[in-house]
Design a protein that fits this description.
With 490 residues, the protein is mainly alpha-helical. It has one domain: Serine Threonine Protein Phosphatase 5, Tetratricopeptide repeat, CATH 1.25.40.390. The chain has 18 helices and ten strands. It has a two-stranded antiparallel sheet. Strands 3-7 form a two-stranded antiparallel ribbon. α8 runs antiparallel to α9 and α9 runs antiparallel to α10. This is RagB/SusD family nutrient uptake outer membrane protein. It comes from Flavivirga eckloniae. It holds the Pfam family SusD_RagB. Keywords: Cell outer membrane, Membrane, Signal.
Length: 490
């Protein structure tokens, strides 16, 4: 059970004081590790809130090459492609056809050569998600055993912890297992619902049905008990939990009614107002935008991961950055000239096909916020749910609500059947490119291939249901967990 060895089986308290005094936009200071015992942490609501704040801040953590703690030899040697949650999303993003990665960071993800059991991508993704899951379990257990906190506080933060735990088990299921509907009995993901201790032994992997049952149970509990109140948009509230639930139901595809209602609860029910955004052509870097439901805040002066923040630092070619990501000319051609999202430029005048276009969607500064979830995505999930429920007119109306907001010359779709679904999926790519790996996510869940155009720097075609859609189990986990064996990677 490598993840718990990595954590030293110690309780990490993240004490953040400044957020208690309020802030003008959003505050997530750097976490400070402390040795306070759990009895102290779970004696006071403010300290519990500080612990939760620290969990979210860990989403922006820099992860060491050898994935050891910073106080060990070789610690604090990190790389931009293992920079936190956004690094995992960007690794998915550049596995598709729409964007092209130069031979820079994420080049092995781009070429689909980064799934080996000993590779940094595999170890980071496993370790990152299981560490956060353990924090969530510590939180749930500490709240349950506390004799000092009132019931309302326990209920509130237990709901937060369950939403966090569900979110990260969902990431593990996406990254380390085949598509859920290929074979729901596949067992690759161990489940843990109690905090690790010095005596913990790694659990055996659970069938995907059990993994998704826990994810859905946690999310439904969270939705029921969370409120919309939160300290800022870096925190999960009821709307965000509904959004995560809607995403999960896109994968399970067994309750489109709930997918629609969860998406509507997330975006507020009025598609026309939900999709309004001022971020387009403004750098896509401000979580104050009303379209953003959830994101990473960057304070612009006190962060330690300035040059790790995907997608901005990789896609912006007009700032001091990695300047590593290009746009496929065929993807560019899917946007009309009147579409506000057509933010592509030929700045290099290059004869190299893959370098023809860059996107100016994302502007990189030290204060660039990062989107994790938007209302517009939820509107498109609702459209797909309506399509699958046989309500094609409603699906077209929802689709058009977004299209006409982005393009004044847009017209209501006349497509039906598979053509309508394809239009919804294309709109998801146009709206969300660079953000959450939507092209890879949709191909995997819908059992579709990813076929690259000849313009790519590396032309690789990924067949539907290919093993390239998921990573191997880290060798370090197989070596440390007696209930995992090498056959999982054969």
């Amino acid at each position: 059970m490598k993840i718990y060895n990595t954590l030293h089986i110690k309780f990490l308290l993240v004490v953040i004081v400044a957020f208690l005094s309020g802030c003008s936009k959003e505050f997530l200071d750097e976490p400070k590790n402390s040795g306070l015992p759990e009895a102290v942490v779970f004696s006071d609501r403010d300290i519990v809130q500080a612990f939760v704040t620290g969990i979210y801040d860990r989403y922006k953590g820099q992860w060491d090459d050898d994935l050891t703690d910073d106080d060990l030899p070789g610690g604090n040697v990190s790389d931009p492609d293992t920079g936190g949650l956004y690094a995992m999303y960007f690794a998915r993003t550049i596995k598709g056809n729409d964007l092209i990665q130069a031979p820079s960071w994420f080049l092995f993800d781009y070429s689909h050569e980064n799934r080996g059991a000993t590779f940094r991508r595999t170890r980071f993704t496993w370790t990152f998600n299981y560490e956060i899951i353990n924090y969530a379990n510590v939180l749930i257990n500490g709240l349950k055993e506390s004799t000092d906190l009132d019931d309302a506080t326990k209920k509130e933060f237990t709901a937060v912890a369950k939403a966090i735990r569900a979110f990260h088990y969902f990431q593990l299921a996406l990254e380390f297992a085949p598509n859920y509907n290929n074979d729901r009995s596949v067992a690759r993901i161990p489940l843990y619902t109690e905090p690790a201790t010095v005596n913990s032994i790694g659990n055996p992997p659970s069938p995907l049905t059990d993994v998704y049952d826990l994810i859905l149970s946690d999310l439904k509990d969270a939705v029921a008990d969370l409120s919309e109140d939160r300290l800022g948009k870096s925190y999960i509230n009821k709307s965000v939990a509904n959004g995560i639930l809607a995403r999960v139901l896109l994968v399970t595809q067994d309750d489109w009614t709930l997918a629609s209602s969860a998406a509507r609860a997330a975006y507020g029910g009025n598609a026309a107002t939900a999709v309004v955004s001022t971020n387009w052509d403004e750098g896509f870097d401000d979580l104050a935008d009303q379209d953003w439901l959830w994101g990473h805040f960057q304070d612009g002066s006190n962060e330690t991961n300035f040059f790790w923040m995907a997608p901005h630092v990789f896609t912006d070619h007009l700032a001091l950055s990695f300047q590593a990501t290009y746009a496929n000319t065929n993807f560019v051609d899917t946007f009309s000239d009147t579409d506000v999202r057509k933010l592509f430029e030929d700045i290099y005048n290059s004869s190299t096909p893959y370098r023809e276009f860059v996107t100016t969607k994302f502007v990189f500064t030290f204060g660039s916020d990062v989107p994790l979830m938007r209302k517009s995505e939820m509107v498109l999930i609702d459209a797909e749910a309506q399509y699958n429920m046989g309500n094609e007119p409603e699906a077209r109306d929802l689709l058009f609500a977004l299209q006409k907001e982005r393009d004044p010359d847009a017209t209501l779709s006349t497509n039906s059947g598979g053509a309508l679904l394809d239009e919804i999926l294309l709109e998801r790519r146009k709206e969300l490119y660079g953000e959450i790996g939507v092209e890879w996510f949709d191909a995997k869940r819908l059992r579709r291939p990813i076929n690259r155009d000849p313009e790519h720097r590396v032309v690789v075609n990924v067949p539907a249901d290919s093993e390239l859609f998921y990573l191997n189990i880290p060798q370090s986990e197989i070596d440390a967990n007696p209930n995992m064996d090498q056959s999982l990677n054969q």
